[in-house]
Amino acid sequence: MLDIADEQRGLIFNIQKFSIQDGPGIRTTLFMKGCPLTCPWCSNPEGISDEPEIMVSERKCIGCKKCAEACNADAIYFENDMRIINWKLCTNCLECAKVCPSHAIQVMGEYKTVNEAFKIAAQDRDFYSTSGGGVTVSGGEALLQWEFVRDFFKKCKDAGFHTALDTTAYCPWENMEQVLKHTDLILFDVKHMDPAMHEEKTGVSNELILENLDKASNTTKIWLRIPLIPGFNDSESNMQKTAELASRTKAEKISLLPYHEWGKDKYSSLGKQYGHNGVEGILEPDSDVVNKCKLILESHGLEVELGK
Ligand code: SF4
Ligand code: SF4
Description:
alpha/beta; TIM Barrel; Alpha-Beta Plaits; two-stranded antiparallel ribbon; globular; binds iron/sulfur cluster
């Protein structure tokens, strides 16, 4: 029996129920905070920082000014009754979110113990058994909090739930190996096969990632996920190399995820800039490009689906 004092806590920014995009069947997906990569196309910027942070909404603000009164850093002021945040002054104390009556300022990121997260996941156990679903841990990069994920998955496996890990695998193998003991499926994010290109856009080389993928494929079922970014990874040679990787690691399935701008508005709500590292100006791939990439992968006998 785990002593509560030793129980791992995870910093989670979203728990999505009834997810059908994150593995087989109906799933509960935990989105963990913190990521060591800097992909400029990230559609979950609230998962990048490894600390709780505020996220603001113009639409929900009723102009009561309680947030400005609570802010000791003078980071909130009003112009023409419009709330403005000077992000450079913000110390991330989170006080404004505590007093906002309309959830126009919310805290992204809440610590939950393994037991607390498990109780939420277990509410939908009937859906898992009837749909062949289970739980998925995603991010951010889930393996930054590998001890929490390891213990959460162990508890889920003990309860008979299918477990899926959505990861970039940029982490020490020893940590990943511990998590994989309790993992049924890895949703493995592959951005680019060339180490220099990978580093240019994501801030890290892909060498450790690919090493971990090769090792993981010896023990755990793999699905690959490829964000399809025009001008970055949609060339024929990169697709051919990705297909070879999928064959070598016996990937059961590949999800092609065409680039989109759905997360764009979230950046300003977090005081972050969208379009760093040259992504501004990239258009969503047209269907010809998507189909060309799909055909290349399928020509290697791989099962390919288009995802979101
Ligand atoms: S989180 Fe930032 S804006 Fe909000 S009260 Fe603290 S310092 Fe002020
Ligand atoms: S406390 Fe909330 S509702 Fe009131 S002014 Fe600030 S952001 Fe708007």
